[in-house]
Every structure is written in structure tokens, then in C-alpha cells.
Amino acid sequence: MTTTRRQSVELVRFDHVGLVYPGGAPVLHGLSQSFHVGSFTFLTGVSGAGKTSLLKLIYREAKSTEGTVRVFGKDVSKLNRSELPQFRQRIGIVFQDCRLFPHLTILDNVALALKITGSDIKSSRIYAKELLDWVGLGQHMSDYPAILSDGQKQRVAVARAVIGRPLLLLADEPTGNLDYEAGYRLLRLFEELNKIGTTVIVATHNKNLISEFSYPELELYQGRLISRGREALRKLHSS
Description:
The chain is of the alpha/beta class. 35% of the residues lie in helices and 24% in strands. The strands form two sheets. It has a six-stranded mixed β-sheet with strand order 6-7-8-3-9-10, sandwiched between helices. Strands 2-1-4-5 form a four-stranded antiparallel β-sheet, covered by helices on one side.
């Protein structure tokens, strides 16, 4: 399938989506947006704008209070509890805090994602080794998370997120705890994943870092997504 063909297919679709947490103010409202197969998108906005909430709607950790969210062609609000594990196996998630298991080696942290799906332990570890080599951490396979830098931990988290070969990768402020150089290297890893077909959505408030890349930027502003050039966005916030 060519890049043009891939990007004409909707992987995620929001139709007039709203989200209000119990007892709180609206987080998202009237949100309509599509993310296409093979695309790479930066999701920006100030802290509290709703970036994390939007990602949670995609992998069904939260449910919209109005409108419809479709992922892989399915209305995610209609997925029952027994369907969620298989649904989420097709999605890789990278969190800002990495969420590595401190009692497991780096190798076992990565391999665990395959083990829990019933994959053979030996083959899971072999593939985990390949991924750790790919992210430049092959020499740390027997180490534990406590001795790694923040940047190294995030690369482990990336390896773990993609070991199941997800169709979609969601990253929630993945560079928040990293210096500029480490954050740049991490986004380059996401770029390599995108080149081999993974659809990538990166939520971040680091405008300086993403200015190094030419991918589309959607900004959450007052509960809505705005797709504009950076100059238009600057004028909007200064008005």
C-alpha cells in the first residue's frame, strides 16, 4: 500500500465529541477530527488543555459524554470489557512517567507486553532484545530501571510500546522529563516507526522541540482542535 493510499484511510475519527468529567467543567466540546493511517501528528496545547483526555478517549480509558469516537472503524463506546484487551493490543502507549516495573530487568520490562498475550517466553525475549538494540540500549538488557537516565527509560518505554507491532502509537508528553537532545532523539525514534507504517500521535507542549519537525500540528484551545500555521496560532493566543 502506498503512503498516499494509507493516509486516505481513517484510523481514528471524532464526530462532535464532548467530554465532561463528573462535577467538572467541559474538557472537550464539539470536537470533530480524523487521524489517517500512516500519519504523524503533534497534539499541542497548554497544560490542562485536554491532551491527555483526548488520548484516553482513543484507547478507551475514558468515554465521551457526547458524540462518537471511532478507532479501527469501531465505535469505542460500544466495546465491552472483554473486548478491550484485544482492542488495546493494537495500540502502543508511551507515558511521560514511563511506568516501568522496577523489579524487572529492562529486557523483561519490554518482553512482558508479549508474554501477557500468551506468546512464547523465549521468542518474546529474542524480539525484546532486537528492540532494545534498535533503541540503542542493547548493553542494558540485564539492568534495572533505577540505574537508567530519564532518556533511557523513555526509550525502554518506546520498545515496550511497539513490541506488539501496534497500528497506532500514542505518546503522552513523552519528552516532558527529558532535556532537548534526549527529547529530539526520542521523536526521531517515533519518526522511524512512522516510516514503517505506524500511525503516531504525540501530545506535547514543547513547541520549540516540535519546530524541528515538519509534521502537522493540532492545538487544543478552549476544548477544540485548531489546525493552523504557527503564526496564526501565535496571533490567536495574543488576541
